[in-house]
Write a structure and sequence with these properties.
Layout lengths: L13 H8 L4 H14 L8 E10 L2 E11 L4 E5 L6 H9 L6 E6 L2 E2 L7 E4 L11 H6 L7 H10 L15 H13 L5 E5 L7 H18 L2 E5 L3 H7 L2 E6 L2 E7 L10 H14 L15
Helix pairs in contact: 1-9, 5-6, 8-9
The structure holds adenosine-5'-triphosphate (ATP).
Adenosine-5'-triphosphate binds next to β2 and α3.
């Protein structure tokens, strides 16, 4: 299929790292980190290793020897231009696509089809209209356990709507039910395919906080596909850019949580956005970008 393209690893220039980290004094971030470790349990998420993955449709090569490793419990965001292959990568991790070449391992084991501990949340909630809110969540629980489904609805603040029909819920509430269904089985890997794309700005911010809180509490590995670079920086430990079928930029987001839209945040946002829009400075290789 397509020829292998070199993978580019991009890290922030040292002086820019210093600039962004200066927003968070080291003693403050050390205290925040210790508090966070006490508050949040150790990661129980799946490690992911993708090596040389090739995925295409007919003559179209979408992923071209893509390399990506995600440590357990990491929150990774995937960005890139429309049609670059973000959802294809997500479907590969979900077991919904097979790589023609290369390998995908989840938790050290070669991936082979769907796994019960891997859940996907899509842009549309995909609730069954003829089932109540609770019964929609029960679909996500092995054996349909009511108590577990109700507990998941409580997590997203909708236990009081358990007996209602999906049709009476707002778009944001439907996505919360979809999140409850995805989390009800306590997945080790949660794949989020632009889940907030159809929501209004305020509901989107609320949902981002909810997803961040639940991820911090449960420590699953999370992979979020998003068109919104700001959302990626707000939520992710690390943001990768898919371009030409490979990872073209790989940025660790070293900002304390919850994240404020301050100078450090904007710096990350602009760095990634400029790269997505191919607005790298002409002498990028001399300014600390390692490509
Ligand atoms: N089942 C399929 N059959 C044929 N082509 C497909 C299939 N799925 C995806 N493609 C093509 O693969 C390419 C990548 O699609 P993909 O949905 O992964 O992109 P994306 O980056 O998620 O796009 P967007 O941001 O617009 O959602 C597109 O050109 C798309 O048309």
């Amino acid at each position: 299929m397509a020829s292998a393209l070199p993978q580019r690893k991009v890290s922030l220039p040292p002086e820019e790292k210093a600039q962004s980290s200066s927003k968070v004094p080291s003693q403050v971030s050390a205290v925040a980190s210790a508090a966070s470790q006490a508050e949040h349990p150790a990661p129980r998420g799946l490690r992911i290793d993708v090596h040389g993955a090739v995925v295409g449709f007919g003559d179209l090569a979408v992923l071209r020897r893509l390399e990506l490793s995600i440590p357990p419990g990491q929150f990774l965001a995937v960005v890139g231009r429309s049609g670059c292959g973000k959802s294809t990568l997500l479907r590969l991790l979900a077991g919904l696509e097979q790589a023609a070449e290369g390998s995908v391992a989840l938790g050290g084991a070669a991936a082979s089809g769907l796994r019960p501990d891997v859940r996907v949340m899509f842009q549309d909630a995909r609730l069954l209209p003829w089932k109540t809110v609770l019964d929609n969540v029960r679909i996500g629980v092995p054996g349909g356990d009511r108590a577990k489904a109700l507990a998941a609805l409580e997590l997203v603040g909708l236990a009081d709507r358990a007996k209602e029909w999906p049709s009476v819920l707002s778009g944001g509430q439907r996505q919360r039910v979809s999140l409850a269904r995805a989390l009800a089985a306590e997945p080790s890997l949660l794949l989020l395919d632009e889940p907030l794309g159809a929501l209004d700005a305020l509901t989107r911010i609320e949902m981002q906080s909810l997803i961040e809180r639940l991820w911090q509490e449960r420590r699953f590995t999370a992979v979020l596909v998003t068109h919104d670079v700001g959302e990626a920086v707000a939520l992710a430990d690390r943001v990768v850019l898919v371009e030409n079928g490979t990872i073209a930029q790989d940025v660790d987001v070293a900002l304390a949580r919850p994240r404020e839209k301050d100078g450090g945040f904007t710096h990350y946002e602009n760095t990634i956005l400029n790269r997505v829009l191919a607005r790298l400075p002409p002498d990028a290789s001399q300014t600390g970008f390692s490509i």
